[in-house]
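User: Working on a comparison across species. This one is Leucine-rich repeat protein 1 from Camelus ferus. Can you predict its structure so I can line it up against the others?
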Amino acid sequence: MKLHCEVEVVSRHLPALGLRNRGKGVRAVLSLCQQAPRTQPRPPAGSERGGRHPACLFISTLKDKSGTRYEASASSLKGFLSAVRLAHRGCDVEAPLSTLTPVKTSEFEKFKTKMVITSKKDYPLSKNFPCSLEHLQTSYCGLIRVDTRMLCLKNLRKLDLSHNHIKKLPATIGDLIHLQELNLNDNHLESFSVALCQSTLQKSLRCLDLSKNKIKALPVQFCQLRELTDLKLDDNELIRLPFKMGQLTNLRFLSAAQNKLPFLPSEFKNLTLEYLDLFGNIFEQPKVLPVIKLQTPLTLLESSARAVLDNRIPYGSPIIPFHLCQDLDTAKTCVCGRFCLSCFIQGTTTMNLHSVAHTVVLVDNMGGTEAPVISYFCSLACYVNSCDMLK
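Assistant: Here's the predicted structure for Leucine-rich repeat protein 1 from Camelus ferus:
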């Protein structure tokens, strides 16, 4: 009979000596054992249970696999207490008793919470990962896809798949409901799927590292990962950031250096960051003349879309066609707060990045901390009222 638990051996003599116990248990295998006959002393003559061998508690730890034997005593579990009590009284114990043998390393892996693998030769091929893992790192293992065995680790909080050759992420990563940190640095990813953005990661994911991949754009739904505090996008091929970046209200660390960003989205100014790094992008100079795409009167599609969004009317593919849902998801936000679909004025201005971040890495070798921001206006009136911003 074995129990995997945390064990602290307490001496009741310590307080009398002015000493204290450690107050901290260690992972161990606690067994109710029966000592081997050849090592037991012969029971005294006349003993009622002379033919039986006494039971004992046996504690084995990772450092002491041979274990230490103790007389049977109480345990935290009722069933174990009952078995110990019966054994201590010399009664028959219905539970199977273990033999006094050293514990195998695999016994401790059953409750292992952290595993770090940094080479192919150490990668487990013939056995599963311990189901109790909370932190798993498999770097430099040559993985070309995410191992499905990892997706069964329901307690996982930190997953590090950096320095591999992964090209695509399975949507089932979103089933890891406790996942807080996901490191995909230095892989071959070309996208981050909408399915992941709309999964349970919306509530759990705090830190995401997508640096050193081949991502050109992130979906609009990416901004639904609103619990993100740290986001690394360095060394990709990004030509734009999601224009609803301002919805990432918990974001504090953003690094998107060495990409191909020509400008920042208008909602970028709504961020409140502690650290921002946009060095090495191809920021363009603000255009003097705006791009005008106004229509009078508004089309039926434009009017309907504005009404749905301005009044926050729920929508979805069961209600309206999927392509209309996509149009609504990608609607622009005017500086006045209203929405516009394809009828707008587009202008560009510059923004000092210190207005959104406490610490700013220079955007170029000239010591600049300004970047172009693209803005949208739903009407000529909004544009005229905001013309001072575009000078």
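For your comparison, note: The CA atoms of residues 60 and 388 lie 74 Å apart.

User: Helpful, thanks.
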